[in-house]
Amino acid sequence: MLIDRAEITLSGGHGGAGMLKKPKGPDGGNGGNGGDVYIAGSSNLNLLNQFGQVDFFSAGNGGMGARNNKTGKRGDDIEILLPVGTSVYNRKTSELIIDIRKTDDRFLICNGGHGGHGGISATSGLAGERKNLILSLRLIADFGLVGLPNAGKSSLLNEITNANVKVADYPFTTLEPNLGVYEGKCLADIPGLIEGASKGRGLGIEFLKHIEKVGTLLHCISCESKNINKDYETVRHELSEFKPLLCDKPEIIVLTKTDLLDKKVVDKLTQELKKIRSKVIPVSIHNFKSIQSFKKVLLS
Fold first, then answer.
1. pLDDT tens-place string over residues 212-221
2. Domains and CATH numbers, the chain
3. d(CA 80, CA 252)
4. Which end of the chain is more exposed for a tag (fewer CB within 10 A), N or C?
5. CB 4 within 8 A of CB 90
């Protein structure tokens, strides 16, 4: 199950104590600074699941100062990976701290404490910065690939982006959303919906919740369908039953697996779908020209 909200506490490492200089002894060194805590973006949507068992994370503590003015070892930094689309809030004030927008985002979130001074008046190190946070997975993708099972969503995601999603010729191969990125645009492969999804059939409620978190719907309909209009209406009905506002999202119909049919038949199906939605893209992962046309639409 995809967790889209979590509460965690992060802390920079504690600074190490300075070493006391003993009478007639060698000078004592300063303590090492504590490690810092960073938050970074990732395409893995399931990363909030890691906080189900552990909700406190701390960077390494600084080492104690040593003789002969040797500074203690600096504490190790830690990096907390969060899914792209996560908003990070201060738990106490509800103030937004950062938004994770890209996979290469990396933010310093908690500084480590300074090490103590060594010498005749040696001091203890300082505590690291500590923050109580709320993590909310607000938007998982610019585009969401939706449709019935086996509509070709995962294959299309693999072809367009750097994703490597399992593909098989049976329903519910995809049980969690998968992400891919093309030219800075994030695409999510949403598990297939079936009739009754809005009532919970086939894990439908969980799947429909993911659709709330995408910008534009790429509604995939397979050329193998015996009734493309019915397939379209089935998915739209489940969206409306779950939350009518989902039907207000921008939508592009993607007619998939067009290599399986004659071009005249594909053209006829395309025109039929254009009666429903003006923007229809016929595409096949085995047709380079159609893939290039599809990519242009993503960037338009």
1. 878 899 999 9
2. 5-137 (2.70.210.12), 141-299 (3.40.50.300)
3. 35
4. C
5. no
